Amino acid sequence: MTGRMMQSAPPSTALFTDLYELTMAQAFHDEGMAGTAVFELFFRELPPERNYILACGFDDALAYLENFAFATDEIDWLAGTRLFSDAFLKKLATLRFEGDVFAVPEGTAVFAHEPVMQVVAPLPEAQLVETWLLNQIHYQSLVATKAARVVVAANGRPVMDFGARRAHGSDAANKAARAGYIGGLAGTSNVFAGRLYDIPLHGTMAHSYVQAHDDEAAALAAFVSRYPQTTVLVDTYDTMAGIDTVIRLATERGSAFPVGGIRIDSGDLVELSRRAREKLDAAGLQQVRIVLSGGLDEDKVARLVREAPVDAFGVGTAMVVSADRPSFDCAYKLVEYAGRPRLKASTSKLLLPGRKQIFRRRDGDVFSGDTLASQGETPAGEPLLAQVMQAGQRIEGMGRTARDCRAFCHDQIGMLPERLRRLDKAEVGYPVAVSASLRQLQKQELARLGLGASANSGSR
Fold first, then answer.
1. In the predicted model, what is the mean pLDDT of the chain?
2. What is the C-alpha to C-alpha distance for residues 160 and 315, in angstroms, rounded to an integer?
3. Is 75 exposed, middle or buried (0-12, 13-18, 19+ CB in 10 A)?
4. What single DSSP character describes residue 201?
5. Are strands 386-390 and 393-394 parallel, antiparallel or unpaired?
6. How many CB atoms lie within 10 A of CB 459?
7. What percent of the chain has pLDDT over 90?
């Protein structure tokens, strides 16, 4: 399916935020603290189940920033809470995001502590957008990374997103379809997401279609006649009997029954697919594909690739909820205000101060290591963060479709060291160094705060 991509559908309101963002913004307003702030969004740690994270969700994040506004009725509602002054509410009524944003390209493979987005804006603006940015980038990065693992496990076989009905709400389903596609899925069954993001649509049939007919053969014949080369479900009653029915119809009707594939959604998928392939081949139906689905994740897909004659997969619940790792430790933190570096020194959450850049080195076509450096430093490697928004508007030419992001993400994964592309935890992780200058700045800020260089020395 192709066509003009719709614009992302941002929420109509800036009210999607945590209460403390608003109370802090009022305090900043009352104290006259509207200087330029720099916030960085990053993942604190790679979980044990992941060797990298794919940064995703930036298109929705930027669309939100461009449309950031409080509606009149929302200002009235906030007034009714009696938490905010008239002067502050008057400020909110005209507030728009007018800052600059820097980000890595969507689909970039990133690692712990690397800023994937920087927001440079007056302090209250930069603070108020935290909740939305974390919500979108965290979830979409989570799903894109999970999808990439499933695609790697499929070893070249197409994988389709069938997860809309099990996602945690319709918005999550749409964002999962987009993120999964960027992560490498072939397409989605979610029609709305297909139109919204110009993602190829894929689908088969449900058991109810067969159940609604008095005869399984009549159901399959009717469906294939309307949708040639479609994939039919064969496990409504008895899987092997369903396969026999497909073979009988194909043998008797020939080109009048142009079935493209069969889908098995339950039972012993290895044994059933082996027997199905034997029967189909014996009947001269080598072109009929076998699609497997039903509670699949990357580990099950990898096993099926090793043991079963499978041509494609449908994945759902395990991907859209990232079942084995349903959250990453994602943070959005102030690193500079009014021209001075800022840090956080909480136990296990020490924050590197100041605005930063990521420099990525390559050994031929393989990424060999990154360096986190202070702004203005130029260590070896390619800088990853680039400006994508200026004065609250996207920079012309920086917008990319989901298809563009998918192609870029595919190249990113291909340039990772082979040990990182495996499903198991790499014994040797990806090297991310901190420049000497940035380490020195960290020590200076700790000393200024009277904390000493040893504070939280076990964390970056």
1. 94
2. 6
3. middle
4. B
5. antiparallel
6. 16
7. 91
